[in-house]
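Box 3.1 A note on notation
Throughout this textbook, protein chains are presented in two layers. The first layer is the amino acid sequence; the second is a token string describing backbone geometry. Keep the layers aligned when reading.
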Amino acid sequence: MNASSESKNNLEQVVSLAKRRGFIFQSSELYGGINGFWDYGPMGSELKRNVREAWWKFTVHEREDVVGLDATIIMHPRIWEASGHIGGFADPMVDCKDCKKRHRADQLCEEQGAKLIQDGKNWKLPEGTKCTSCGSKNLTEPRSFNLMFKTYVGPVEDESSVSYLRPETAQAIFAQFLNILPTSRKSVPFGVAQSGKSFRNEINPRNFTFRSREFEQMELEFFIRPDEAVELICGRVTTLADNPDLTGKPQDDWGWDVWHKYWVEQRLAWFRSIGLPGDSLVEYWQTREELAHYARACVDIEYAFPFGVQELEGVAARSDFDLSQHQKFSGKSMTVMDDKLRLAVSEMDDAKKAEFRAKTIASWKASGKSEEDAGAFCDLLFEGRYIPHVVEPSLGTDRLVLALLCNAYDEEEVADANGKKEVRTVLRLHPAVAPIKVAVFPLVKNRPELYEKARGVFKRLQRYWNCFWDESGAIGRRYRRQDEVGTPFCVTVDFDTLENDTVTVRMRDSMEQVRMPVSELRSYLEEAMKV
């Protein structure tokens, strides 16, 4: 049974449960809290860890063409110059002159059904825009606010020691590309994945953990050949217009748009595998006007949160922008030698090369690029080299955890043992991400032989899953506590266990109970978790 729409669309209930059951606490709550920062409690830390491990397993361990990286949070500031973050990583900010409330200008406009006006490098508020806190129209002009947290490295705080907390995890992958490529023994196409903390000094953190100042990301940079290299190697480039079978294995002749669509489908499949239903996800394909200047395409995979449909993950085709920028700023070549390309070029005569060069130059000029750059690109290809292009799926871990909680939260009316109606609160989390997989209960705790038998069952299951032991209170109350933290299975050891070595397994979603031998318990649970 899926969560009811009424329950899913009540953020207050989810926030209340998250604190009551140890999922998420406000950071520094003892001292009044700090806006935009959140701590994950016993249940939340397990849920978040399970999400990360499920992502890593799907993205890295179950593939042969992706490796991992774990980079530092503070890196050389030139990295952020090359990426454009120092010069252009900013949001528009406005202040209300009456109530002194600070807003992000684009969000303020969206809340009132309008759109922020961009005039060159400046922004303007539409006529009639007002403060959503007090209703005043006495607002400052929008001004740029850089989102990066600044710090200092070393004992002296001056301009020479300025550095930044990373605003994303991706740039480390590009900066370490020249080390990863030879040591991983991979060749293009291949990917590098990383998860970890990022920091953005958001103007207006809001919607619980959705927009925070400290958060986690799970990002993949998947490096692919330029379409021109694909054409030289394969004699053709398969595009989306050719209606390729995206359920099959990647092919050498895939062009960038097929790779991009492939990764969109891979990400949707993974979301479904951890319990987010497909009908709750929306693919938003950014328009040409919305795309970053370097992007060829970008799909926002969105989820219907209680506060609106918002982005979970972006899947962008970023061309060769990132590696080219780091080549420019570092002075180090980011080109790769492609043996398949070198072999293909070696079999071309001068006439074919000239024909290819003319075709490429015409194509580049038609898209606004220079003939000189097109010629230099062809020269590089004829040496068997190029700067790889990249497709980037970038996911907010905290946003996904919030989506899973919102999707799983449900309330239903059930009858207790005496037939009295009561409301049951339950988190219908997929077993793959549930913080606790199995809870074990002794029916009573004052019978030593029963207690020891239950401890034996618990210890046996604990070897394979995160389990929870609960010996206090009535069985019904113990079930309800586990329902609220999303535990999919509860095992009760009772007096019959002592007679025939069987236990009762109770299912969270249906509340059905089955009796089985202890010897079959592990295999039964393993199969039941494959939903």
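The chain has a mean pLDDT of 92. The CA atoms of residues 191 and 222 lie 4 Å apart.
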